[in-house]
Amino acid sequence: MSPHDFHEAQALYKKHFHHTALHTVRAPGRLELLGNHTDYNAGLVMALAVDRFITVAAQPRTDGKIELVSSLFADSEVFPADEFKKNPAAPWADYVKGTLAQLHRRGVHFTGFNAAIHGTIPMGAGMSSSAALEVATALVVRKLFPYRLTPGGLTTAPVRNQRGALPPPSPEERLEIAKLCQAAENQFVGVQCGILDQISSLFGMAWSVIDIDCRSLTIEHAPMPGEAIIVCNSGVRHELVGGEYNELRASCESAANKLGVKTLRSVAIPDLEARRDHLTLREYQCARHVTGEIARVVAGARALRENDHEQFGHFMFQSHESSRDLLRNSTTELDLLVELARQHPGCLGARLTGGGFGGATINLVRHHQAADFITHMQQAYEKARNIRITPMVCQMVDGAE
User: Fold this and answer.
1) Could you tell me if 183 and 64 lie in one domain?
2) Same domain, 47 and 193
3) Are 8 and 47 found together in one domain?
4) 347/267 Cα distance (integer angstroms)
5) Taking the C-alpha atoms of 305, 309, 314 and 319 in order, what is their torsion angle to the nearest 10 degrees?
6) Which are the catalytic amino acids?
7) DSSP helix/strand/coil, 158
8) Is the distance from CB of 110 to CB of 103 less than 8 angstroms?
9) The predicted structure's pLDDT at residue 4
10) Rg, the chain, Cα only
11) How far from 29 is each of 124, 131, 211, 222, 354, CA to CA, in Å?
12) How many domains is the chain partitioned into structurally?
């Protein structure tokens, strides 16, 4: 764990609660390299866990209450450990409450605790600060009140060693925690997201791409080429709770239903074209994007294996064009960022990342030209939009701990 993240969370905890926290966990944000809106269609996604984090410092308390403080919000949130209700004045706490509600539903016993939350993931940038907060919540509860989740439910809790530390969750446990956190976002927060974000935060690996098959829930890692990964935040914050995300999912599910399949993963592009008349225009557009995007993930993985970074970059540009023209989850600002990136000779590929409707672009840039690319993007975007951006170079990191 980065000493800086650890110390910031611990300092926040001590400032508010006046003593040192017992446990600290950290969950990374994620970038989706290829595979936009394919996860809830049981498709394929290529993702990265990156060095921006949600860190939570916590300690039990004895009065049956939970108190949360955050470095990003002025007011704390206090509620009973067995009562999870939304507070419109503190929507950020919904991700914690939703995760706690899912743990409670699965029989995990926990009592009151204090928690200080420190974040370095830009909010509203499409890097999944929400999933990282859900994952960090599940893991800090595991440290405070040990539990072990399996597909069949709770089993014997892990045992602390002589130093008071628990063994890390197994891959099987991590997958169950990912499902739990996804359910928190679906059922409590109200965003019908797939499982990409939670898996990415839990299964990250340094210097590696995470290849996720969202139908079989198999996860593999592949070495990432030594190019720079640079994020450009458009300055337009996306709010997936607003409904656009859920509408896209509904259109995809409606298309699958009319095509007689469980999910769009089972539809080949020729079959979709042959049955296009069965769908509304919007259903067809969403289905065409998803089927094409899944094919791009397959082709992109092959390009990386063959060390063909230029071809991989072309797939990134194609992905953005499909998101823009078919899925229609881009914005004028995201489109501009991609076009400005395309103009730079060091940029191999660029596309929106995350749910869309604002947020950021991910850019694959030749390593030795990264600094010049950042200067180019700052100057060109400020000239066009009068907005000063600070592009971020992101490193690939291990999953939550």
Assistant:
1) yes
2) yes
3) yes
4) 33
5) 60
6) 197
7) coil
8) yes
9) 83
10) 21
11) 12, 8, 16, 19, 11
12) 2
Q: Which of 118, 131, 176 is nearest to 150 (CA)?
A: 176
Instruction: Return the H-helix or E-strand segment holding 356.
Output: none
Token pair belonging to 149? 């989740």
List the beta strands (DSSP E) in 216-288: 218-223, 228-233
Q: Are residues 170 and 298 in the same domain?
A: no
Segments forming the whole domain that contains residue 371: 226-394
Contacts of 269 (CB under 8 A, 6+ apart): 288, 291, 292, 295
> Domain check: are 213 and 247 in the same one?
no
Q: Tokens 């739990």 sit at which residue? A: 180
In a 3-state reduction of DSSP, which class is residue 40? Answer: helix
Question: And the tokens for 238?
Answer: 């996306």
Give the tokens for residue 104: 């409670």
Cβ proximity of 134 and 95 under 8 Å? yes
Give me the residues of the chain with pLDDT under 50, please. 241
Residues 6+ away with beta carbon under 8 Å from 5: 26, 53, 55, 118, 120
**CB atoms inside a 10 Å sphere around CB 262:** 12
Helix, strand, coil % in the chain, rounded to nearest 5: 45, 25, 30
Last residue of a domain, one of 173, 191, 220: 220
User: Quick count: other Cβ atoms within 10 Å of Cβ 275?
Assistant: 16
Cα(374)–Cα(372) distance, rounded to whole angstroms?
A: 5
Closest C-alpha to 390, from 127, 122, 50? 122
- To the nearest 10 degrees (0 to 180), the angle between helices 244-258 and 281-305 is 90
36 and 142 co-located in one domain = yes
- The answer to whether 136 and 55 are in contact (CB under 8 A) is yes
- Identify the CATH number of the domain in which residue 127 sits: 3.30.230.10
Alpha helices by DSSP H, listed for 106-232, are: 129-144, 171-184, 196-203
Query: 151-156: long-range contacts (C-beta < 8 A, 24 or more apart)?
Result: 151/176, 153/106, 153/107, 154/106, 154/107, 154/108
Whether residue 267 is contained in a domain is answered as yes
Residue 350 lies in a domain: yes
**Quick one: tokens of 92?**
């950020």
